[in-house]
């Protein structure tokens, strides 16, 4: 059974995984996982590959790149927003990840990508180019790609789902604004007695004003 080794500090850990590969040799590799729990999960995925007779961690030269795999995935899209998904992938995902391998996309890489998107501003106004909702949409699109890669046997883990909930982009909540403004209540009459009573009835029921001779 494999083990974990921290070669960093307690504040900034660097978790290495030690495992017995399919060739019978013990190997130690950097997991690129920010927490011990995620590194343990990564080790479990490596051992699951070895149990199937596969290499625990594929070498970079043998691992497929995301660019060609994403093109295959885009061809399978048949959802209503497939055209928008393809445009978003071309504009935001492919420039960042086309030269990455599946194993190279870690939680740390995704957190840096989120920060990069937040820092993108228009040169003339200095305003952000991407809202939190757009960044969240990009992240969800990448998650859908990894889900497809797992179904096709290309990947064993979806790194997007390993991002803690509190650190994911959150779409701003819309405030409830009444769409109808209540009509202003007419001023109270200064007269007293039956005439004031009739005026009040006419104010509350405008349709009866002609019948009772009230004026607003």
Largest sheet: 3 strands, antiparallel
Rg, nearest Å = 31 Å
Summed up, the helix count is 7
Distance between the termini: 88 Å
Record field, number of beta strands: 3
- Which word captures the global form? elongated
The CATH homologous superfamily name of the largest domain equals: Tyrosine recombinase, N-terminal domain
Tally of domains? 2
Helices and strands: which structural class?
A: mainly alpha
Adjacency order of strands in the biggest sheet: 1-2-3
- Which residues sit in consecutive blocks of at least 5 with pLDDT less than 50? none
Query: Helical percent range?
Result: 40-55%
Could you tell me the CATH topology label of the largest domain.
DNA polymerase, domain 1
Percent strand equals: 5-15%
Class of the largest domain in CATH? Answer: Mainly Alpha
Mean pLDDT: 83
Order of helices and strands: EEEHHHHHHH
Q: What CATH architecture of the largest domain do you see?
A: Orthogonal Bundle
């Amino acid at each position: 059974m494999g083990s974990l080794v921290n070669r960093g500090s307690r504040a900034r850990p660097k978790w290495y995984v030690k495992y017995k590969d399919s060739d019978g040799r013990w190997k130690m590799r950097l997991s690129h996982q920010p927490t011990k729990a995620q590194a343990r999960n990564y080790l479990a995925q490596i051992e699951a590959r070895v149990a199937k007779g596969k290499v625990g961690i594929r070498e970079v030269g043998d691992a497929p790149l995301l660019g060609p795999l994403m093109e295959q995935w885009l061809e399978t899209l048949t959802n209503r927003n497939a055209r928008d998904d393809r445009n978003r992938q071309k504009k935001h995902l492919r420039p960042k990840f086309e030269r990455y391998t599946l194993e190279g996309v870690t939680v740390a890489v995704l957190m840096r990508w989120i920060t990069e998107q937040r820092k993108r501003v228009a040169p003339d106004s200095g305003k952000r180019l991407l809202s939190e909702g757009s960044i969240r949409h990009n992240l969800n699109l990448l998650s859908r790609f990894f889900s497809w890669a797992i179904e096709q046997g290309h990947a064993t883990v979806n790194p997007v789902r390993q991002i803690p909930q509190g650190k994911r982009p959150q779409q701003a909540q819309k405030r409830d604004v009444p769409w109808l403004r209540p009509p202003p209540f007419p001023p109270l009459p200064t007269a007293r007695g039956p005439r004031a009573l009739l005026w009040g009835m006419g104010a509350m029921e405008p349709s009866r004003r002609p019948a009772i001779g009230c004026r607003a």
